[in-house]
């Protein structure tokens, strides 16, 4: 058959996105399937069932990465072409972040099976553990271990923000696997993902050929001050951890505005102790997420934050301790794979453009071991990590069809 006319079954893909979204549904259209929780287990069980129904050989590695393997007809030692993403979500996640890439990989397999199309190289669909990094840090933990960037023992010893041990959680949900780590060194890796930003939607462009991804710096700051009476303590005698946390957040906003360009800064988590109306906070715990496409500028932002914190600590008579949580330099993807994505998008008649990813993705880890690139489709109003996350069905199908033909080209 002329595989050029092959298309994924849009209804099949939309139905599985809907079914997976019911697991951990938060009632407002979103999902909560934090890594290695019971909801994540249920999502994994469902995806593994769909993999088996498609005739894929399901394998699980020691960090819980899932793989559905479709045999090729070429030489047995031919490296496979891999696609995939993640099915864990943030606590207020949408239904497309990660899930769309994994399920589109399965939709590609479904289309190939239906059409009786075989490929020379094996095709592997992956779902990597703890991509979000919301429960365990760093993010992209499963693909980082897969690519050799984090020893398995260190990953197993990682504690969740709720105190659970990663290895114990893998065992508890039945996904402490024994597949080889890494299962394979792919011939190439292509990840399909929603953009999660406003660019494609604003430009009315359907496909992004992602050629690079910005650097990420995550740290946890602990401010230790002195609890005291809110009414009796003169301002000059305070060591107010709550004020210091607010001062740090305001500094980070000023820093990002002043640096401009792609610099972004976020304080996403903040807790005060004892968190009471009439007690000056003794302790503040906050997280800092800094990102920039330029490594030198990202380091500059880190240095400036450290300097501000040191000055603030001295002035306010508090201690401020920083604990690194994740640090990844900017990544350049493979131009050959990105060019192929752009060509397939054009051949299928979709407007396409080059993109930089503002978000972290498993592809940035696979890029350490094989040629890798990503396909983006528009996020309506750029909203993501939010139950209102939405991508039009036509765009979902468009991305999956570009993935289908990119994988076909790479694996035949
Ligand atoms: O944080 C990120 O960029 C990704 O969602 N883990
Ligand atoms: Mn994602
Ligand atoms: Mn995400």
Helical stretch count? 12
Task: Write down the Rg.
Answer: 23 Å
The helix/strand order is HHEEEHEHHHEHEEEHEEEEHEEHEHEH
Mean pLDDT score: 98
- Rough outline: elongated
Ligands and ions found: (2S)-amino(hydroxy)ethanoic acid, manganese (II) ion
Structural class: alpha+beta
**Helix content, binned percent:** 25-40%
Strand-residue fraction?
15-25%
Describe the protein in words:
This protein has 12 helices and 16 strands. The chain has 412 residues and is an alpha+beta fold. The strands form 3 sheets. Strands 1, 2, 3, 4, 5, 6, 14, 15 and 16 form a 9-stranded mixed β-sheet that branches. The longest helix is centred in the C-terminal third of the chain and has 22 residues, at 295-316. The chain binds (2S)-amino(hydroxy)ethanoic acid and manganese (II) ion (2 copies).
Short overview:
By secondary structure, this protein is an alpha+beta fold. It has twelve helices and 16 strands.
Q: Secondary structure elements and their pairing?
A:
Elements: H1 10-21, H2 38-53, E1 57-60, E2 66-70, E3 81-85, H3 99-115, E4 123-127, H4 141-146, H5 152-156, H6 166-173, E5 188-194, H7 199-203, E6 207-213, E7 215-224, E8 228-229, H8 241-259, E9 264-266, E10 270-273, E11 279-280, E12 283-292, H9 295-316, E13 319-328, E14 331-332, H10 335-347, E15 352-357, H11 363-366, E16 372-377, H12 393-411
Parallel strand pairs: 3-4, 3-5, 5-16, 6-15
Antiparallel strand pairs: 1-2, 2-4, 6-14, 6-16, 7-12, 7-13, 8-11, 9-12, 10-12
Helix pairs in contact: 1-3, 3-12, 8-9, 10-12
The chain binds (2S)-amino(hydroxy)ethanoic acid (HGY) and manganese (II) ion (MN) (2 copies).
One manganese (II) ion (MN) binds at residues 90, 97, 132, 385.
């Amino acid at each position: 058959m002329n595989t050029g006319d092959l298309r994924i079954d849009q209804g099949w893909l939309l139905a599985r996105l809907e079914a997976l979204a019911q697991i951990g549904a938060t009632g407002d259209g979103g999902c909560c399937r934090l890594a290695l929780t019971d909801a994540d287990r249920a999502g994994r069980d469902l995806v593994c069932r769909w993999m088996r129904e498609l005739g894929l050989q399901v394998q699980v590695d020691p960090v819980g990465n899932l793989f559905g393997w479709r045999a090729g007809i070429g030489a047995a030692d031919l490296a496979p072409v891999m696609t995939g993403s993640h099915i864990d979500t943030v606590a207020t996640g949408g239904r497309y972040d990660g899930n769309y890439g994994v399920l589109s990989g399965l939709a590609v397999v479904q289309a190939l099976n239906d059409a009786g199309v075989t490929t020379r190289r094996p095709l592997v669909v992956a779902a990597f553990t703890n991509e979000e990094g919301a429960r365990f840090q760093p993010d992209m933990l499963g693909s980082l271990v897969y690519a050799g960037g984090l020893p398995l023992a260190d990953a197993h010893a990682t504690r969740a923000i709720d105190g659970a041990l990663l290895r114990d959680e893998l065992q508890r949900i039945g996904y402490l696997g024994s597949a080889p780590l890494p299962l394979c060194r792919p011939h190439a890796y292509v990840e399909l993902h929603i953009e999660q930003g406003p660019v494609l939607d604003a430009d009315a462009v359907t496909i992004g050929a992602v050629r690079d991804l910005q650097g990420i710096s995550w740290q946890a700051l602990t401010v230790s001050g002195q609890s005291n009476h809110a009414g009796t303590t003169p301002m000059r005698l305070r060591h107010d951890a709550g004020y210091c946390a607010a001062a740090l957040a305001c500094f980070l906003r000023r820093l990002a505005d002043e640096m401009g360009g792609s610099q972004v800064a976020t304080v996403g988590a903040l807790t005060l102790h004892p968190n009471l109306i009439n007690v000056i906070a003794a302790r503040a715990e906050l997280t800092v997420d800094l990102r920039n496409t330029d490594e030198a500028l990202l380091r500059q932002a880190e240095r400036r934050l450290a300097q501000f914190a040191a000055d603030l600590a001295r002035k306010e008579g508090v201690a401020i301790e920083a604990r690194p949580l994740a640090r990844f330099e900017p990544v350049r993807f493979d131009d050959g794979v990105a060019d192929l994505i752009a060509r397939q998008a054009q051949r299928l008649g979709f407007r396409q453009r080059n993109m930089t990813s503002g978000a972290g993705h498993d592809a940035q880890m696979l890029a350490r071991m094989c040629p890798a690139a990503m396909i983006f489709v528009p996020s309506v109003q750029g909203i993501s990590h939010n139950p209102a996350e939405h991508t039009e069905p036509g765009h979902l199908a468009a991305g999956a069809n570009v993935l289908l033909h990119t994988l076909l080209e790479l694996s035949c």
